[in-house]
Amino acid sequence: MSTAVEDIHDEHEEAASIEEQPVLTGLLAEFRDVNTVVAAAAKVRREGYRRWDVHTPFPIHGIDSVMGTRPTVLPWIVLAAGLFGAAGGIWLQWYVNAYDYQFPISGKPYWSLPANIPVAFECTILCAALTTVFAMLALDRLPMFYNPLFKSERFRRATDDRFFIAIDAGDPEFEEQATEELLRSAGAAAIERIED
Prior knowledge:
four-stranded antiparallel β-sheet, alpha+beta
């Protein structure tokens, strides 16, 4: 009598036993002083990188222009929202007082602009303020609950006494060896692979 033994594999056990390989998300270069990081930022920009950032423990005057950061569109969005709020407030008061529910009082006009300025002003401020908050969050892609940079022990010094340039691996110009060489030639004290 012959007995056949089946090898039963659980697909989930097999998948769990295979560890996922970490994916390179970018390179992090550490610099020791302001002048070096500003010069390195200028060099990175000249090389054509677009998906990169500078992290510093304090604001550096002029770093935005060195990085080529464009002015934000937020003020125009807020202006449009404020104008919408003012127009909406005026229209609402006109509709309610002069059109929908006319209430004659001693021959006074049903609607006049000076009497309605306070409400229009408040609607302007309300719309502009709410738009500022939500548009800023959207433009900054916030809230961001996770960033692979937070895994780096070295990066914790960005809030203390070190300066960093992080170049995203998704940048069209990114090639690990060439990017690492660029950062070394720019004066990086240390370069770390950021993996996720």
